[in-house]
Amino acid sequence: MTDATADVQSQADALIREFVGARGTPEACYALAVLLNRTVTELHKVARARVNETRGQAEWGQWAGLQNTARTLVLQSSTARDAAAKLVGRAR
Questions:
Q1: What is the pTM of this model?
Q2: CA 67 to CA 56: how far, in whole Å?
Q3: Per-residue confidence (pLDDT) for residue 40, from 0 to 100
Q4: CA–CA distance from 39 to each of 21, 58, 84 (Å)?
């Protein structure tokens, strides 16, 4: 792991801790599920755009794989978000 990678991970950890803050457990779960869903949605958008840009190039397959994985995560994180929303009494 490079220093840059470690820095990104520590920054992400700090952002998550700040975002969750002093929320109770159900509220923290809901906040994290929403954050997860929004994050993988953005990952999917970025990867999809890159797939379109790299079509026909050697790296296209790697981007397509990331896009497919992100799409699966969007679906799964939506389910997690909806389940967490019920725990805090939020209708989706």
A1: 0.86
A2: 16
A3: 98
A4: 18, 27, 16
Contacts of 19 (CB under 8 A, 6+ apart): 31, 32, 35
| Phi, psi angle pair for 55, to nearest 5° | -55, 130
DSSP string for residues in 61-85:
HHHHHHHHHHHHHHHHHHHHHHHHH
| DSSP of 23-55 | --HHHHHHHHHHHHHHHHHHHHHHHHHHHHHHT
- CA gap 10, 3 in Å, rounded: 10
CA distances from 65 to 9, 53, 68, 87 (A): 22, 14, 5, 33
